[in-house]
Amino acid sequence: MTTFMETPVTSGVAPERARSWLLVPATKPDTFTAAVESDVDAVILDIEDAVAPKAKPAARDAVVAWLEAGNSAWVRINDATTSFWADDLAALSGLRGLAGVMLAKTESGSQVDATAARLAPGTRILALVESAVGLEAAPEIARADSTFRLAFGSGDFRRDTGMSDEPLAMAYPRSRLVVSSRAARLPGPIDGPTLTANESILARDSALTLSMGMTGKLCMHTEQAPTVNRELAPAPSDVTWADEVVDALGADGAHVKDGSDLPRLAKALKIREAAEVFGIHAD
Question: What pLDDT, in 10s, does the model give residues 65-86?
Answer without folding.
Answer: 999 999 999 999 999 999 999 9
